[in-house]
Design goal:
By secondary structure, this protein is of the alpha+beta class. The protein has one domain. The chain is about 40% helix and about 30% strand. It is built from one helix and two strands. It has a two-stranded antiparallel ribbon with strand order 1-2. A hairpin with a 6-residue loop joins strand 1 and strand 2. The longest helix has 21 residues. The chain is elongated, with a radius of gyration of 13 Å.
């Protein structure tokens, strides 16, 4: 199974497009809430980096 999400993020003077894809291996037991939390964490990390980049 593969989850994917994309979005345009508007940081002042630095808008960017983010696409994240996550693939579950056959033997892994992953639920939607875990995947959503991973999407959130990845997005937050990138936003913090872009917003604070000098």
């Amino acid at each position: 199974m593969v989850w994917a999400d994309s979005g345009i993020v508007y940081v002042p003077s630095r808008p960017y497009l983010l696409t994240v894809m996550i693939e579950k291996k056959l033997k892994e037991n992953v639920n939607d809430s875990e995947v959503n939390e991973l999407f959130k964490n990845i997005s937050q990390e990138i936003y913090n980096y872009v917003a604070n980049y000098d």
